[in-house]
Amino acid sequence: MAAKNKKNCTCKKSELEQSLIQSEEKFRLLMELATDGVLVVQDGKIKEVNYYLAKICGYTIDEVLDTDLASYFHPDDIGTIEKIYEKPLKDDNALEVHELTIMCKNGLKVDVEVIAGRFMFQNKPSNLLVVRDISERGLNERELAKASQLESICPSPNAKRPSNTTGQQPS
Asked: How far is CA 143 from CA 105, 109, 112, 153, 159, in A?
């Protein structure tokens, strides 16, 4: 009877190990295929990062690992960063989108959208952050605002002019 229980326990252990390996493989694949920046943060330090996020900032993955998350953000955003990786550890439903600014290796600033969620990584409470470059969105919004402002100052010659009360175009 003891031999049967030991064999059954060994089989369950093997199944759990196989399940863990598959789960880790899925996580690695997600990290590699994501077209947004993805990183894992424990105690404010970056423990995992994908290529895309490192590329946004102009760093290599090795340069980013085990560094302070806050050091990559604009000083005005530090309070928000601390809230991001502290709040989800206390509240499982705390998923908020934040618009922040990343400071790149070359000194340029990149506008990003950050969302964080809580999970266990290497048996420690951690945060998974997804970072999306929204600098193009901001550029498009600024171009639209500028075009609208120019249109109000100097209407396009192709724009339809308002008609008078008789329905005829003013001369």
From this structure: 27, 18, 18, 15, 19
